[in-house]
């Protein structure tokens, strides 16, 4: 970057010019900016720091354009899911998402607060829960917070995770559990959860795509005074029974994929909703509806409706070490995008999109199963992600697809489930073009022919 | 129907759900024309979803109206202390949205996402340079998660030293962000509060007394939440290390010192940063943020998974450190935010970052001088990025509270500062102008606050009722908490 003209502002992001600075320094009563840092230990001030030089805006756009081009072509067929799925996001979602900040001043933050109330309403209905917060970091950390809540509520020191569960989710639960001093047991059957456990965490659909019948699990857990925590894909909930209706006590989920593209995993959005009995144990911010204290003449002397952050006595900035969680900044902008997408789809659109994913994925599975040398391991009803066992080992199958310009699903052959042996996990959604499925089927046939 | 009803201007009474008409829709979904697979058993399915039914235009108008009922950093001065509300460069949003970066799948093989990984590697290296703590994980989603990571890293290190059972306390100053004690408790520690001395720095005598072999760490914010330099922190670091404990840094206030002094040089063992503050990624109405954690070689094996590293084959990869505390999120963090932060760092370079901290500090001091005499200044010395006034004089003499002053500032067109924090300052008004405000804006803010101080004397009732010009008046927060209404229900509304 060329040096700024003498006397100008140092950078487009910093308005004060040299003469502004001189005037301000004079008023403050110091000779130069360095004098304002006089309290700092002199021997450590202004160290050598090795950073690349500044870039102008066009240079920056060009640089990041080069970086984007170093990644794989985003338009090529790609069947990787395993926790991050591509959906058809309405154009209005990105158009309408404009950032502000934590609405500490409700009178001039009604946009953020009312939107958060809309979000809580959508999440409650999708999950079948009574109360929702305004969102946490991601589905996995929300699930970890659910485990901490369950441990507090039941006063038990162990939680159970039901396989198949996303390994990233299991890892995050272990990280959080270590701090809280909880034991984490990974179980292969709901029966393995016992009266020692605060809760059983069940992924819906499970990590390998199967739809879980939650009701018998909930009954068994409740008989043992334990809670059912369900980490559900909110998109799938357009079709699947609300976990709350099946007996879940806390429902978490990952909302990122209904907000926008995956961004290599984040920004994400942790859904967190619960039965009302756990309201005062919830982590994170909660927005409530209320009315004005002083009714204005403009509304016929009736108080108007407004929204505020509420039940804040749970939170870190008031309760400090006795807070229900340390969470402060979360993912509000992603929650806004999630809300707009789900409301734009509406009651019929969400169902249609979920059914389209189901139909398209099942049709693709049927076509693949009909190829010589391929099978789809049987594991009951599933949603839109499925296992494929081919004529060659899973790793080789994935590599062969990659060599043909197709992003394969996830190689899950190292997992313990019998159905995952030698299998690759493929995701197909409503947003997968028919032509990409055709290319996949043709490529698999080609690979099968060479085997 | 989205036209306002005859009842007046009660916009908030009608949510999207109330505005819908059965049969309308905002987007359509392609029909399935292939072979139909029967749906699973009905007991696994839902009957319906309760969502609004609006046309596309109606939905856009509703959310556009909502955005107009919000004050953001693009609306005007937003001097919310401790939050570093500065202008967010729009080019950062543009580059983070490039499809090649935005569409990258988190489980893609390293070779297919080298553009993303190289960017993250350079950001990691830059943050290591800026903090003087060269081992970095970008995984934490926000500051509080970065804190949890840092404290859990200390837990692992103590475990490996065989001292975890004995070191069960964490010392936290009484001026600390609430996240600090909340984090320590979440990680299973007991919190001991350290008072602030008369000069606004940590009380050295208490630290000396409390530091023993039951202390795991001391969590310190530099500069502290009073906007002041923590005098002698480098000596305190020595005392902490002599006692076998770790010095944790809350880097929320990095904006004051970027490029001028480094946490590592001062003796901090681990620090988290808030890139949505110092590196100006949009706060988004409360996120997403990014809270990377930086440490020295001793704690590096414990960093959260993943960390970015270059391999012998020239490929950049995500790896799990040897004794990692584990993952904090299912995938690798808020990468879209991290790319914005990288763009910010590259747009400024070292000279630009130094200009940022210098101007941020000058702006806070300019405001301190302009307002001096009109409001009490409990710690009257030059400040760094923010200045904390007290409204105690207005409360004592005129029964006007800081709450009223904040609400009246809305009528003057400003977002109010942070109020009632830090907790150790009575009737606190915590103001952080940031470097992106021009001097005229700081002068206008000072004039408004001086006018309000005069109004507190002449017309306190006007302050008690403020704001008068906002889209809505003061809200009944007590009833909101006592009888919570937390979601839309058909029967809790006045009708549609």
Topology (SSEs and partners):
The complex is a heterodimer of chains A (451) and B (496).
Chain A: H1 18-28, H2 57-70, H3 91-96, H4 110-127, E1 131-132, H5 139-154, E2 158-162, H6 167-180, E3 183-187, E4 197-204, H7 214-223, E5 227-232, E6 250-254, E7 270-274, E8 286-291, E9 305-310, H8 316-319, H9 332-369, E10 385-389, H10 394-403, E11 410-411, E12 423-427, H11 434-450
Parallel strand pairs in A: 2-3, 2-4, 4-5, 5-6
Antiparallel strand pairs in A: 1-7, 6-7, 8-9, 10-12, 11-12
Helix pairs in contact in A: 4-9, 5-6, 9-11
Chain B: H1 16-19, H2 56-68, H3 90-96, H4 99-102, H5 114-131, E1 135-137, H6 143-161, E2 169-173, H7 179-186, E3 190-194, H8 204-210, E4 215-221, H9 233-242, E5 246-251, H10 263-266, E6 270-273, H11 275-278, E7 293-295, E8 307-310, E9 316-319, H12 335-371, E10 387-390, H13 392-398, H14 402-411, E11 418-419, E12 428-431, H15 439-458, H16 460-465, H17 477-482
Parallel strand pairs in B: 2-3, 2-4, 4-5, 5-6
Antiparallel strand pairs in B: 1-7, 6-7, 8-9, 10-12, 11-12
Helix pairs in contact in B: 3-12, 5-12, 6-7, 12-15
Unreliable stretches covering 5 or more consecutive residues of chain B? 1-7
Q: By helix and strand content of chain B, what is the structural category?
A: alpha/beta
Question: How does the overall form of chain A come out from the CA principal axes?
Answer: globular
Element-by-element helix/strand order of chain B = HHHHHEHEHEHEHEHEHEEEHEHHEEHHH
The whole-angstrom Rg of chain B is: 25 Å
Helix fraction of chain A, binned, reads 25-40%
Distance between the termini of chain B: 8 Å
Helix % of chain B is 25-40%
> What strand line-up does the widest sheet of chain B have?
1-7-6-5-4-2-3
- Count of discrete alpha- or pi-helical segments spanning 4 or more residues of chain B: 17
- The CATH class of the largest domain in chain A, by name, is Alpha Beta
- Determine the number of helices of chain A (DSSP H or I, runs of at least 4 residues): 11
What fold name goes in the CATH topology slot of the largest domain in chain A? Aspartate Aminotransferase, domain 2
**CATH fold-level name of the largest domain in chain B:** Aspartate Aminotransferase, domain 2
In terms of quaternary structure, the protein is heterodimer
Shape type of chain B: globular
